[in-house]
Here is the input.
Amino acid sequence: MIRLATLIAVLVLAVAVYGRYQTENAVKARADDIASAERAIDRAEADIRTLRAEIAHLESPSRLAAAVAAKKATKGSQLRPATPSQVLSLEAALQSLTANADADAGGQALVETDPMAAFLEEYVVRAVAQDAWEAQ
Here is the structure.
């Protein structure tokens, strides 16, 4: 009887040791996963800091002013602000495009004459597609 009790106790102890071993290995694997994720986060944050520093450098007013001055020196000051006569209204641009399209296509316009209708049609198509996608 004592031998049977001892055998059962040894088997229970072996199962407990095996269970603890498996649990410990699982915990170590999860700890390694967490450490790996934290290292990836640290690398990403370092990359973000580097990119922000690069953006700050590229957008610095003194650097931009020097670049503009160098560009003006090489171009002979050909850069000038746009005059109002160089700026077209949307309607004038569309009329110009449709007139050119009519001349090129032999009377068949390549550009739609009602841009608002085209915009609304595109908007409705996208809204319907978005609603259908969200319904899935």
About this structure: The longest helix spans residues 2-58. The CA atoms of residues 38 and 44 lie 10 Å apart. The chain has a mean pLDDT of 81. The two ends are 66 Å apart (CA to CA).
